[in-house]
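HUMAN: Can I see a protein plus its fold?

ASSISTANT:
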Amino acid sequence: MKKNVIATAVITACAALAVSSAFAQSSMTLYGVLDEGLNYTSNVKGHSVWEMASGYAQGSRWGIKGVENLGGGMKAVFQLENGFDINSGRLGQGGRMFGRQAYAGLSDDRFGTLTLGRQYDSVVDYLAQTTANGNWAGYLFSHPYDNDNTDNSFRLGNSVKYASPEIAGFRFGGVYSFSNETNFANNRAYSFGGQYARGGLLVAAAYLQGNNPGMGSSGAITANDASFIAGRMRVFGGGINYTFGAATAGFAYTNSSYQNPTGNGYIGIPLAAPGVRLDTLKYQNFEVNGKYQVTPAFFVGAQYVYTRVNDATSSDSVKPKIHSAGLMADYNLSKRTDVYVQGVYQKVAGDSTHSILDHAFIPGLQAPSSTDNQLAVRLALRHKF
């Protein structure tokens, strides 16, 4: 009898250890960000506006990500991330349940990670971290209309992505997004980039191309997800950040080109003057930024962006200029909760396009200014879990 009891106890203990070991091979994490604050805008269609607004330094979100160890250094990975507006509770990213990210794939310690689903492009993955908006500042600090997508205005659907492991401080990757149509090239996109980080140095570069972005509901960049709606989009650029002590200084250059653009997801109206067809719209963004960690709990940051625009129609070509400047201060109340204040100013100068593009517009605000300048100030609370 004693032998049977002992044997049963041993078997039970071994089974418990086996189950515990199996669960130890896998992990799943629930996480999120709540970013809520009060915005003041100097001019929205001719009037100043006070409003509550969600998700600026970081988009408000919740998500689930997981890893299952398959053995031999290989893992199954997945991530589902939902974006939402705190004030109304509505879904973000065109009303998608998991509009920020939704993918599954395989990861290997030696060979890298291959994932499939709705994902970021290589500009976001590698280059954006050298800009203020893609690193520590967020939405309001985006380049005009987020023309280079360094602030994640859109994601790539139907995408296959490869990301390398880190090799002596260097990592690289690329993504291809299918149109899911019989016309293979219609509304497809592809992107690639790389990043080198060593000590306080960060150097990055990336390229992105989309064919017919914003056209249709099932392609790489759909109509309810696009920033610019155009015949073709091309974005490339590079950037560098260097951290020395408590200070970080950065420079980024991006070049964005749109063929036959007809609209923009932020302002939602024709971009050209009445009766005029816009053949090409090009942006060159030159950004300098800096951040200083005053104490472990408090930092201040600044950004200036000079944007050269080339607005070409069948009969004319004009070259406006856009000046954008931003300041930010952030204080951590705890490891997970902080308060921040931001101020951003934009001025449109140079040639006139005789269209809505002559009006200043800071991404994230309700609408363009009625003039060539616009100011926004934000005070907000952010909590991470």
Remarks:
- The longest helix spans residues 2-24.
- The first strand starts at residue 26 and ends at 44.
- Residues 1-24 have pLDDT under 50 and may be disordered.
- The helical segments are 2-24, 122-127.
